[in-house]
Write a structure and sequence with these properties.
- It comes from Thalassoglobus polymorphus.
- This is HTH-type transcriptional regulator ZntR.
- One of its GO terms (molecular function) is DNA binding.
- There is one protein chain.
- By secondary structure, the chain is mainly α.
- About 65% of the residues lie in helices and about 5% in strands.
- The chain is elongated, with a radius of gyration of 23 Å.
- The protein has 2 domains: about 70 residues, Orthogonal Bundle (Multidrug-efflux Transporter Regulator, Chain: A, Domain 2); about 55 residues.
- It contains 6 helices and 3 strands; from the N terminus they run E-H-H-E-E-H-H-H-H.
- Strands 1-3-2 form a 3-stranded antiparallel beta sheet.
C-alpha cells in the first residue's frame, strides 16, 4: 500500500495552495482516496501525479474544462487522439489571438517609449497625461 498524504502534504508536493486543491475537489478533478481516523483527507501517489498533470496541462494553456477532458472521456476512458487534437487546435487558436494582442501592445509601448526618449526628461510625460485623459 502506498503512503497516504494529508491535504497539506499533497498540496505542497504538487506546488499548489491547499485552497486550489479544495477547488479541484469541488469541481471533480481530484478526490481524496481515503480518510484518517480524525476524518482528514488522505491522498495517494496517484492523486499527486494527477495534480502534477493538471499543473502541466494548465502551464501549456489548457483550461480546467480541457483538463477534465484530457483525464477521461464521458465513459471514464482515456481520450482519443482526435479529441485531444480538437482541444490542442482550440488552445492554439487562443494563443495566436493573445500573441496578436501582445504584438499590438508591444508596438504601442515601443512608440510611447520612443516619444518619451525624444522629450525633455523634466517635462510632464505625455503618456501619463494621455492615460489620465481616458
Amino acid at each position: 500500500m502506498s503512503k497516504r498524504l494529508t491535504i497539506s502534504e499533497v498540496a505542497k508536493a504538487a506546488g499548489i495552495p491547499i485552497s486550489t486543491l479544495r477547488y479541484y475537489e469541488r469541481i471533480g478533478l481530484v478526490e481524496p482516496e481515503d480518510r484518517s481516523f480524525g476524518n482528514y483527507r488522505l491522498y495517494s501517489d496517484h492523486s499527486l501525479k494527477k495534480l502534477k498533470f493538471i499543473r502541466a496541462a494548465q502551464a501549456i494553456g489548457f483550461t480546467l474544462e480541457d483538463v477534465k477532458s484530457l483525464l477521461a472521456d464521458g465513459e471514464g476512458k482515456a481520450p482519443t487522439c482526435g479529441n485531444v487534437q480538437d482541444l490542442i487546435e482550440a488552445r492554439l487558436t487562443d494563443v495566436e489571438e493573445r500573441l496578436k494582442d501582445l504584438r499590438h501592445v508591444r508596438k504601442v509601448l515601443k512608440s510611447a517609449l520612443d516619444q518619451c526618449q525624444g522629450q525633455e526628461q523634466t517635462k510632464c510625460c505625455h503618456v501619463v497625461k494621455e492615460l489620465k485623459a481616458l
